[in-house]
Amino acid sequence: MSNTVLDVKENSFVQHIADNADHDTCTFDGKGTFHAMAIIAAVTPGSKKTKCCVPRREVKDEAIRAAGKIPIIPHTIDESVLGKISYQHLNWERFQDNEKYFDQLWLVSWFLKQPRPGWHGSMQNAMMARNHPGKAEIVFLPIIDMPASNDTTINSTLKLIVCQAKKYGLTPKVTFDQQLWWKAMQIIENASLQCLYREMICKLGGVHTMGSFLACIGHLMDGSGLHELIDLIYAANTTPHILRGKAISRAIRAHIIVEYALHIVLHEEQLSNDSEKG
Questions:
Q1: Rounded Cα–Cα distance for residues 79 and 77 (Å)
Q2: Where on the tree of life does the source sit, at the highest rank (predicted)?
Q3: Angle CA 91–97–102, to nearest 5
Q4: What is the CA angle 23-29-30, rounded to 5?
Q5: What residue ranges do the domains of the chain occupy?
Q6: Whole-number Å distance between alpha carbons of 143 and 149
Q7: Of the given ranges (4-8, 61-65, 188-192), which has the lowest mean pLDDT?
Q8: d(Cα 50, Cα 108) in Å, to the nearest integer?
């Protein structure tokens, strides 16, 4: 059982992840479900561990409770804060994305080499020469024995992460799923300007971010023929879920295939026009 101490070095990057953990203690009737907030910390690069045998031992409840404890800080979200939340304008000129043209380069290679690696293989070839930061270490922090969606549970989680970041001189960073992220953002926005919560980077989980992005594409492209095009790839009953960002893996594959087809048409038309001019 891990406590709340992290093995953080000078060049370490620490990312906390918190999510609900539900366990059915009575599997036959489904009653008595245990709801809690589970928290882990990903430390990159992690400390090197030596292999050793884990002894079998009987652990008492007192030893588990003494291993680590998270203070519970009561909190009630002020719903009126929703009208105060504003999104800052992103200054794209300050952001240099050196990999933004990799997709275009891979799509153009369709005409240059056959067979060629798929998208994942191309990205691996492009990135494999870079220095790897090292294998991350996953540290399991104590579980909060309260429903994860409870305001007090989320507030106690934020407090733990902020205190750990302050202890190690790091910027607090945490990832939630969509429901918990929205409540956490309300708590952070409702905090005073001097509160350490204001320094926190609260991120939406990757799957939920991707789902929201895919749902935006489905909404914006409604009536464009994208629905009928995806019907040629998947069953018609699956397409609405794809366009709403629900079936993530199928949606990604469907959009990549559609992108293939569009770029083939565009490139063939461009090559045809160039040959006519020549």
A1: 6
A2: Eukaryota
A3: 145
A4: 25
A5: 13-49+71-76+132-204, 99-129+208-277
A6: 14
A7: 61-65
A8: 47
Q: What are phi and psi of 65, to 5 degrees?
A: -65, -30
Going across the sheet that includes 33-44, the strands are: 137-140, 33-44, 13-24, 173-176, 201-204
Q: What is the DSSP letter of 238?
A: T
- Enter the pTM of the model: 0.76
Tokens of 86: 């504003």
Q: Do 45 and 132 meet the contact criterion of CB atoms below 8 Å apart?
A: no
Residue 158's region, left for phi above 0, alpha for psi from -120 to 50, else beta, is alpha
The reported pLDDT for the residue numbered 2 is: 46
**Are the beta carbons of 83 and 91 closer than 8 angstroms?**
no
Coil, strand or helix at 116: coil
Report, in angstroms and rounded to the nearest whole number, the Rg of the chain calculated over CA atoms. 24
